[in-house]
Design a protein that fits this description.
This protein is an alpha+beta fold. Helix content is about 30%, strand content about 25%.
Length: about 400
């Protein structure tokens, strides 16, 4: 079934897909036709209300990127999906492309050595959006790829840009993600460029990769190139950088349409009760970075901590598919409190702000009355932390379970 408020658009789609029924009433589609799953591909401002309505109606949901307009909205969708046992998946389509899959394999084998930095460019003329800037529109593709390849979140975000056509909506941005171990990623996004560019360079200590998504052949080229410093020297004259220029090769890529692979993965997760590669947590991580970029834009490019947009959430969350926590650069602690209302309404479960500890080793634990408990190896047990620990009791809530290892 296809749902759209535009009858003209539905008629055009009907000509392409005559066997698919059209619908203009979203509420009727959710509750009146017996669907099991819904894909939300609308303007960003509609992602949250439509996805929330679908989840509350018991439907599995696939949302286009970005997942929602704020981290708080993402968190609510994750909670509803978890409580109701539904699949919540985000359309980070490029993670299902053969090129990104191959790059990930090359990095995981160690062929590139230590990743030093990544540079991405996503440019074209248009398409202008009315409710989001170019960073929210184009950068999610590159951010999702970068987080997937590095398996860590940035510590801070810098972003500068300009609104040349529509006041208040940047059409050109330059974003920098700053990671631990002096890693960084630069992302240039533009709606105001004469050429369409979809390019990413990954620089390692041993080799480098250039990924051009628009190339008809050889989308990935691996360069056996690097710069080496002398291991030791006694005089300045002996100090010479060594530049290595080796072969360039392009690995074979099996042809597969990323969007088709994404849709099949969504169905597979529903049928087999699996957690998606691009689950709600991945969508939340990306939206936090976008929020940090928007804050940095308002501060003329000053660095903004990506931790600033956690909205009371723990910084590390379980990814059930892999059975391992996200590899992040921060830590937190989650407590479940329950009010009297929660005895009647499971959706009344809510989270208190995190407590910062170290060594974020997380496990999933099930107790009779709670949804999730997260434990960490160490917690800074000073008076300030303990006061924060019991702050929820001051609001009349009952602490159901609490445990530290």
């Amino acid at each position: 079934m296809m749902c759209d408020i535009s009858s003209a658009r539905l008629n055009a789609l009907k000509e392409l897909y005559p066997d698919v029924a059209p619908e203009t009433n979203f509420e009727h589609m959710l509750n009146g036709v017996g669907l099991d799953a819904v894909a939300v591909a609308t303007s960003v401002k509609h992602h949250f209300p439509m996805a929330r309505a679908a989840l509350l109606a018991g439907k599995h949901v696939l949302i286009e990127k970005p997942m929602a307009a704020s981290a708080a909205q993402c968190e609510e969708l994750i909670d509803i999906a978890r409580i109701n046992g539904l699949v919540l998946m985000v359309g980070h389509t490029f993670l299902y492309s053969p090129a990104v899959t191959k790059i990930k394999e090359i990095i995981d084998r160690g062929d590139l050595g230590e990743i030093r930095y990544i540079c991405a460019r996503r440019l074209n003329l248009g398409l202008y959006q009315k409710d989001i800037n170019v960073a929210w529109d184009l950068a999610p593709h590159d951010i999702s790829i970068i987080l997937h390849l590095l398996e860590q979140l940035p510590e801070s975000v810098n972003c500068t840009g300009g609104a040349h056509i529509t006041p208040g909506i940047e059409d050109v941005t330059s974003m920098t993600l700053n990671f631990a171990k002096d890693r960084s990623a630069m992302i240039q996004s533009s709606w105001l460029d004469p050429r369409k560019v979809r390019e990413m360079t990954i620089v390692g200590s041993k080799r480098m990769i250039v990924y051009d998504d628009l190339a008809p052949l050889e989308k990935i080229r691996v360069f056996d190139a690097r710069v080496e410093r002398p291991p030791h020297y006694d005089t300045f004259a002996e100090f010479q950088y060594a530049y290595h220029y080796g072969d360039v090769f392009s690995p074979y890529l099996k042809q597969k349409e990323p969007l088709e692979a994404e849709c099949y993965h969504f169905l597979e997760c529903i049928h087999e009760s699996k957690n998606p590669l691009t689950c709600g947590v991945r969508g939340l991580e990306l939206v936090r970075i976008l929020e940090a970029s928007s804050a940095s834009l308002k501060l003329n490019g000053r660095a903004v901590s990506s931790y600033s947009f956690q909205s009371g959430r723990p910084s590390t969350q379980i990814c059930p598919q892999a059975g391992q926590p996200s590899k992040l650069n921060q830590c937190g602690f989650r407590l479940r409190f329950r009010s009297a209302q929660a005895n009647r309404d499971p959706a009344a479960w809510r989270l208190r702000p995190p407590l910062c500890g170290k060594s974020a080793s997380v496990v999933d634990v099930g107790f009779p009355h709670e949804v999730l408990a997260m434990f960490f190896d160490r917690l800074d047990a000073d008076a300030k932390v303990l006061r924060r620990l019991f702050v929820g009791l001051a609001f009349g809530d009952q602490l159901q379970h609490f445990h530290l290892t």
